[in-house]
Design brief:
Helix content: 25-40%
Strand order of the largest sheet: 4-3-5-6-7
CATH architecture: 3-Layer(aba) Sandwich
Number of helices: 6
Strand content: 15-25%
CATH superfamily: Response regulator
Shape: globular
CATH topology: Rossmann fold
Radius of gyration: 18 Å
Order of helices and strands: EEHEHEHEHEHEH
CATH class: Alpha Beta
């Protein structure tokens, strides 16, 4: 346990983000609470910090407010499917790798903005962990302290 400046006690779980190299942060999105819970548990027990979201809108909000190392999203979700979510998130942070999981037959023939497609039902936990490890290790653009969405730039015209 550690004591914060406010005097409240916090578990050591969050302490590593300030004292040691922080864990890789994965945004996991799935409308199925049970699948999301299992995925969160598996990733946390393998050393990742997980930010769970039950839908696309929630995921966009979390992504905009947090530095995320990787996005793992389900394809089949109501309101905003995984592919639509990836497109929205890529507008905010193009450098963040994104994995889309779902039924290969439902995803077939579509152009996806995701960096990887995985079959949700047949992908083993080991295969998923290996893919996450490789993709989150890539150096893919801006990190801490770098503005994520570049503002429009006006160039002066020489006369």
């Amino acid at each position: 346990m550690c004591v914060c400046a406010t005097g409240q006690q916090k578990s050591d779980e969050g302490a590593d983000s300030h004292t040691m190299r922080p864990k890789k942060v994965i945004l996991c999105v799935d409308d199925n609470e049970q699948d999301l819970s299992v995925l969160k548990f598996m990733l946390e027990t393998n050393g990742y910090r997980v930010l769970p979201a039950l839908n696309g809108q929630e995921a966009v909000g979390i992504f905009a407010e947090n530095l995320v190392d990787l996005v793992l999203t389900d394809f089949a979700m109501p309101q905003m499917n995984g592919d639509q979510l990836v497109s929205r998130l890529k507008q905010i942070g193009t450098h963040v790798p994104m994995i889309l999981m779902g039924d290969p037959q439902k995803m077939a023939g579509l152009m996806h903005g995701a960096d990887a497609l995985l079959a949700k039902k047949t992908c083993s936990p080991q295969e998923l962990l290996e893919r996450i490890k490789v993709m989150s290790a890539r150096k893919r653009g801006p990190r801490k302290g770098v503005q994520r969405v570049a503002p429009p730039v006006e160039l002066a015209v020489a006369s």
